[in-house]
């Protein structure tokens, strides 16, 4: 660990200085480049010298030694810093490596990532080994440290122990604590969570909030307790309230909350014209949402909505780096910074034609560079196909609960009274109620109810992808549900849809049943097929991946199905406990 505390060792720094002295040739010279200088808030021309992964000079001079230098004439190109995604959830079927590789093609070369699936499912040694090895890819990977599971899990005190959280907070790659999905517990007097916030502050690290719909008073309380930023503003008024209480505000454009265009209109109406306390984020969107881009899309929307161009770029670069105290190495094109640079065809088009990440070409003249991101050997980190040593039978599918779960949208669920006969082996297709089971991935417990609003004619869907990593079973036909489970088990994890005993659609998730090994481009194809098949069977919402993830997520209202049982979020009580098998 100690040798990684410095971005460059002494011998590297001496070599960088020797480039200026002419003793060593730069590796790349970007000649006569028009680039965004965020210090002067101007587009300026300069020669940019790069040695390996670092910018060693920006100015009028040319290198005295160019023996082994790749020289690029940038007279007709426009350069901006690589974009930073400050709020990535790198486990939404894709994995951290495939997300980073895909994001780089749209100019996002630095990601600040959620550690939820790592802390829940991997040993600390395995997780930290993965963090270490991801340092070697062209993208820069930072992380957060969660303080709660975002659901009611069994043995939470073991996973989110004081020693475990402190180890994560002390890790060099971790920039912040949070997001604080468990903030109601904090307000109710959870002193351990408050202690972790204090520890993060002591280490000069940030605290990310999660305060959807929070009142002005709640926002003020959370600021007093240590929150620094929040990404849950859904209107201009909510942006205004957060800015008034001293927050950094992370504006969101995501698959379940594509709010940015309306927020920017609201901000204009409210006269908000200062942008240096604002960031952009895409909040871990599903892969299909990223088909048209990532943070470049947000810059484009901002420019179209009349945000000053330099401010639009700053919200995806310099503002984020400054906020996280990494602006000495990221977020600008300046001497000493990591060589993350996007090459644009025009100032108004933020999607890059070429991309340098840590001084390596990952995209060149519109084409992805082969081999820039090499495949990983995932099993060394404990990420391997799911091995289930138990079987599912129709005896596990007994439904007698008096009320079920009704979907209001992709992620909000409410209770409803069950009025149909759920003791049958197959439900009719003249209504939108399905059998719904959450099963322990180790086969030790289950909870069964009905789900209203998910689909009308879906025979069976089995998913090892969920918020807690447990198995979700949904459908009208119990035999097909068992068949879907068996196929999911055979795959080593995934999402499987079955109809009349035949597999209709499947998304293999061979990394612990949670993530795909495939490039995001291929995952998008699979996800599109899944959505199409679900829509044909009555799914009417926008994002089934988030629906599956958030059935257990107790940071959202109103009723959730968790490891502990059916859970009333507002009253913080287990209504019906899970049943041991």
TrEMBL record:
The record's listing under Gene3D superfamilies reads: Metal-dependent hydrolases, Urease, subunit C, domain 1
What chemistry does it catalyse, as a reaction equation? Answer: adenine + H2O + H(+) = hypoxanthine + NH4(+)
The protein's matches in InterPro entries, at most eight in alphabetical order, are given as: Adenine_deam_C, Amidohydro-rel, Metal-dep_hydrolase_composite, Metal_Hydrolase
According to the UniProt entry, its GO molecular function terms are: adenine deaminase activity
Q: Which UniProt keywords apply?
A: Hydrolase
Q: Does the keyword Hydrolase apply?
A: yes
List each copy of the Amidohydrolase-related domain by range.
Answer: 78-362
Q: Does the keyword 4Fe-4S apply?
A: no
Q: Pfam families annotated for this entry?
A: Adenine_deam_C, Amidohydro_1
What the record says about family reads: Belongs to the metallo-dependent hydrolases superfamily. Adenine deaminase family.
**Mind telling me what this protein is named?**
adenine deaminase
